[in-house]
Design a protein that fits this description.
By secondary structure, this protein is mainly beta. The chain is built from five helices and 25 strands. The longest helix is centred in the first third of the chain and has 24 residues. The termini are far apart. 18% of the residues are buried.
Length: 386
C-alpha cells in the first residue's frame, strides 16, 4: 500500500511538471491587449491627403497630450510615406500624410512603439480612392444600334488598352464579344469602346469590367462592374390606346407606342383616322421618342379606325414594313357643363348668361345680389374668380 501511494505521488508530480513545461513552452496563456482599437479608417477620401483616425476603447494618453503635434508619430504608413500625428482627444489618434497618396493603391497603417505593444501590434489597410466605373452615359442603353459606341465613365484616369483587356460585352448565351477602341489611346476618365462586329437586333447584352486598375495604381476594381444593355428592335408599332367599345369622347388621350424612337414629323405624316379626327396631328412625343400622345374630342357612338401607314421611318433609318390598323368605338358622352369663368360683364340688353351643357336634364343656379356700395370691396378682395 505504501509503495502504491509513493508511485501515485510520483505520477502526480511528474504530470504537474509536464503540464508546467508545456505551459512554459507555449508561451503561457494568450495575452489580452491592454488597449483595444474600436475603429480605424481614413476620412475625407476625396482628398489626396486624407486624415487617418484610429479610435480606442479607452483613454490612451493623458489630457496634456491632446491637440499637440507629436514629435514622433506612433505609427508607420506603408508604402513608406512621411506622416504627422496628433491626439484629437484622449481616445482618438489622427495621422496626416505629408505627401499625396496615389489613387487605386493599397496602404497599410502599422502602430509602433508603446501603442504597438499595448494593442498587440495592431495594423489595418485601406485602398485610397479605389477605381469605380461610374456608368455608361450618352447613349440609350436599352435601344443601342447594332454597332454601338459605348462611352464608359470612370472616377479616375484609366489606360484605354487596359479597358480593352478587362472589359467585355457578353451576349445572353454567355459568349464574350471582342471590343475595339473608338477613343484616343491617351489616359482619361472616359473611354469609348464598341463591338468588333454587328450585334443582333433586339437582343440583350451585358457590359462587364473586372480586374481593371486605374492608371495611377495597381489595385483593381473591388467588385466587377455589370450593366445590362440591349439593341433596338425593328421599326414598328408596339401598342395603341384606347381600345374597346365604350370609349369616352371628351378630352380623350390617344397614345401610340413605337418600338423605336420616331420623329414627330414622321408620325404626323403617317398617322390618320377614319373618320378623320380633328387635332390628331397636333400630338407630341415623350422624352424617349417612342410614345406619341394627343388629346382629342370625338363623336358619340362612332367607330374609328386609326392607321399608321407603312413607310414611317424611325431615327435609325428603319421603316415600318406594313400598315398597322387599330379600331375602337366611342360610347355615350359623359354629362358636361361649361361656362365662362372669371369676371364677366353682362349687359342689361343681353338675353342672359351663356352656358353649354351636354347630357344634362337640368341644373340649378344659386345667385346673390351685391349692393352697389359693396361692389368695389368685392372686386378688390383676394377671391379666386376662376
Amino acid at each position: 500500500m505504501a509503495i502504491r501511494r509513493a508511485l501515485a505521488g510520483s505520477f502526480l508530480a511528474t504530470s504537474a511538471l509536464a503540464a508546467t513545461f508545456l505551459w512554459l513552452s507555449c508561451g503561457g496563456p494568450p495575452r489580452t491587449p491592454s488597449l483595444v482599437v474600436t475603429s480605424a479608417a481614413p476620412s475625407g477620401e476625396s482628398s489626396d491627403r486624407p486624415t487617418i483616425r484610429i479610435q480606442f476603447a479607452q483613454p490612451a494618453v493623458d489630457a496634456d497630450s491632446v491637440g499637440k503635434t507629436l514629435d514622433r508619430p506612433p505609427a508607420l504608413l506603408e508604402p513608406g510615406l512621411p506622416i504627422e500625428g496628433y491626439w484629437v482627444d484622449r481616445q482618438t489618434l489622427a495621422l496626416v500624410p505629408l505627401s499625396d497618396l496615389a489613387p487605386s493603391t493599397r496602404y497599410k497603417v502599422v502602430l509602433s512603439g508603446d501603442l504597438a505593444r499595448r494593442t498587440e501590434d495592431f495594423s489595418f489597410d485601406f485602398v485610397h480612392r479605389p477605381l469605380v466605373v461610374e456608368g455608361v452615359w450618352g447613349v440609350d442603353v436599352k435601344a443601342l444600334p447594332r454597332r454601338p459606341k459605348l462611352p464608359i465613365h470612370f472616377n479616375q484616369a484609366v489606360n484605354p488598352l487596359d479597358v480593352l483587356e478587362h472589359c467585355k460585352l457578353r451576349n445572353d448565351t454567355g459568349t464574350d464579344i471582342a471590343l475595339v477602341l473608338h477613343s484616343s489611346k491617351s489616359q482619361g476618365r472616359k473611354v469609348v469602346v464598341g463591338p468588333d462586329a454587328e450585334l443582333d437586333q433586339g437582343k440583350r447584352y451585358q457590359v462587364i469590367c473586372s480586374r481593371l486598375s486605374g492608371s495611377k495604381g495597381p489595385e483593381p476594381l473591388a467588385q466587377p462592374f455589370h450593366l445590362a444593355v440591349a439593341t433596338h428592335r425593328s421599326a414598328g408599332v408596339d401598342s395603341v390606346l384606347p381600345g374597346g367599345q365604350d370609349v369616352p369622347t371628351d378630352e380623350l388621350k390617344i397614345v401610340i407606342g413605337f418600338y423605336t424612337p420616331v420623329d414627330a414629323d414622321q408620325a404626323r405624316q403617317h398617322i390618320s383616322a377614319v373618320p378623320p379626327i380633328t387635332g390628331l396631328d397636333r400630338g407630341s412625343f415623350d422624352p424617349t421618342g417612342t410614345k406619341y400622345s394627343v388629346v382629342v374630342n370625338l363623336d358619340t357612338k362612332q367607330s374609328y379606325k386609326l392607321k399608321i401607314r407603312a413607310g414611317l421611318r424611325d431615327r435609325y433609318g428603319q421603316t415600318v414594313a406594313k400598315d398597322y390598323v387599330h379600331s375602337f368605338r366611342t360610347g355615350e358622352a359623359r354629362p358636361r357643363f361649361d361656362m365662362e369663368t372669371g369676371i364677366y360683364a353682362l349687359e342689361t340688353s343681353a338675353g342672359g348668361y351663356p352656358v353649354w351643357t351636354r347630357n344634362l336634364g337640368h341644373f340649378d343656379v344659386d345667385c346673390a345680389a351685391v349692393p352697389k356700395d359693396k361692389i368695389v370691396k368685392l372686386l378688390t378682395t383676394s377671391m379666386n374668380y376662376d
